[in-house]
Amino acid sequence: MPLETNPLIPASYDVVWSVIAAVILVSTLSAAISVVRHSRVVSGAALAGWLLLVLCLPGLGAAAWFLAGRGPAQREMERLYPEAPPLR
Protein backbone atom coordinates (compact mmCIF):
# COMPACT_ATOMS: atom_id res chain seq x y z
CA MET A 1 0.00 0.00 0.00
CA PRO A 2 1.66 3.29 -1.06
CA LEU A 3 1.83 6.14 1.41
CA GLU A 4 -0.40 9.02 0.52
CA THR A 5 0.65 12.58 1.15
CA ASN A 6 -1.36 14.55 3.61
CA PRO A 7 -2.98 17.46 1.77
CA LEU A 8 -3.32 19.44 4.98
CA ILE A 9 0.39 19.42 5.86
CA PRO A 10 2.71 19.99 2.92
CA ALA A 11 6.21 18.50 2.84
CA SER A 12 7.81 21.94 2.97
CA TYR A 13 6.21 22.40 6.39
CA ASP A 14 8.13 19.36 7.66
CA VAL A 15 11.39 20.64 6.18
CA VAL A 16 11.01 24.09 7.73
CA TRP A 17 10.28 22.71 11.20
CA SER A 18 13.15 20.23 10.90
CA VAL A 19 15.57 23.05 10.09
CA ILE A 20 14.25 25.15 12.98
CA ALA A 21 14.63 22.20 15.38
CA ALA A 22 18.18 21.55 14.14
CA VAL A 23 19.15 25.22 14.63
CA ILE A 24 17.75 25.22 18.17
CA LEU A 25 19.54 21.97 18.99
CA VAL A 26 22.90 23.19 17.67
CA SER A 27 22.60 26.58 19.40
CA THR A 28 21.64 24.92 22.69
CA LEU A 29 24.58 22.52 22.57
CA SER A 30 26.94 25.35 21.60
CA ALA A 31 25.70 27.51 24.46
CA ALA A 32 26.00 24.67 27.00
CA ILE A 33 29.57 23.95 25.88
CA SER A 34 30.41 27.66 26.01
CA VAL A 35 29.01 27.95 29.56
CA VAL A 36 31.10 24.99 30.72
CA ARG A 37 34.22 26.38 29.00
CA HIS A 38 33.81 29.61 30.96
CA SER A 39 33.46 27.76 34.28
CA ARG A 40 36.73 29.26 35.58
CA VAL A 41 35.24 32.75 35.70
CA VAL A 42 31.55 31.98 36.23
CA SER A 43 30.76 31.12 39.86
CA GLY A 44 29.10 27.83 40.80
CA ALA A 45 25.63 29.27 41.33
CA ALA A 46 25.79 31.38 38.18
CA LEU A 47 27.12 28.40 36.22
CA ALA A 48 24.24 26.22 37.40
CA GLY A 49 21.76 29.00 36.64
CA TRP A 50 23.08 29.52 33.11
CA LEU A 51 23.10 25.79 32.41
CA LEU A 52 19.53 25.43 33.69
CA LEU A 53 18.41 28.38 31.60
CA VAL A 54 20.13 27.07 28.47
CA LEU A 55 18.84 23.51 28.90
CA CYS A 56 15.30 24.28 30.11
CA LEU A 57 14.58 27.04 27.59
CA PRO A 58 16.65 25.86 24.62
CA GLY A 59 16.23 28.69 22.12
CA LEU A 60 15.80 31.55 24.56
CA GLY A 61 18.46 30.35 27.00
CA ALA A 62 21.06 29.97 24.27
CA ALA A 63 20.26 33.42 22.90
CA ALA A 64 20.45 34.93 26.39
CA TRP A 65 23.87 33.34 27.03
CA PHE A 66 25.33 34.50 23.73
CA LEU A 67 23.87 38.01 24.03
CA ALA A 68 24.22 38.73 27.76
CA GLY A 69 26.36 36.15 29.53
CA ARG A 70 29.21 35.25 27.24
CA GLY A 71 30.57 38.79 26.76
CA PRO A 72 31.30 39.55 30.43
CA ALA A 73 32.59 36.01 31.02
CA GLN A 74 34.87 36.29 27.98
CA ARG A 75 36.28 39.64 29.16
CA GLU A 76 36.89 38.24 32.65
CA MET A 77 38.60 35.17 31.19
CA GLU A 78 40.88 37.38 29.06
CA ARG A 79 41.65 39.59 32.06
CA LEU A 80 42.57 36.66 34.33
CA TYR A 81 44.42 34.59 31.72
CA PRO A 82 46.04 37.01 29.23
CA GLU A 83 48.50 34.37 27.98
CA ALA A 84 45.78 31.85 27.08
CA PRO A 85 44.51 31.69 23.50
CA PRO A 86 41.09 33.27 22.98
CA LEU A 87 38.03 31.01 23.26
CA ARG A 88 36.34 32.46 20.18
Short description:
This protein has helices spanning 11-37, 44-56, 58-80. The chain is mainly alpha-helical and 88 residues long.
Describe this structure in words.
The chain has 88 residues and is mainly alpha-helical. It has one domain (17-79). Helix content is 72%, strand content 0%. The protein contains three helices and no strands. The longest helix has 27 residues, at 11-37. It is elongated and about 65 Å long. 14% of the residues are buried. The model has no long low-confidence stretch (mean pLDDT 83).
* SSE run: HHH
- Count of β-strands: 0
What does the average pLDDT come to? 83
Radius of gyration: 19 Å
The percentage helix is over 70%
Instruction: Specify the biggest β-sheet.
Output: none
Strand content: under 5%
Assign an overall shape.
elongated
- Write down the domain tally: 1
| pLDDT < 50 stretches | none
Give me the number of helical elements. 3
Structural class: mainly alpha
State the end-to-end distance: 53 Å
Q: What is the topological layout?
A:
Layout: H1 11-37, H2 44-56, H3 58-80
Helix pairs in contact: 1-2, 1-3, 2-3
Search tags:
single chain; 88 residues; mainly alpha; elongated
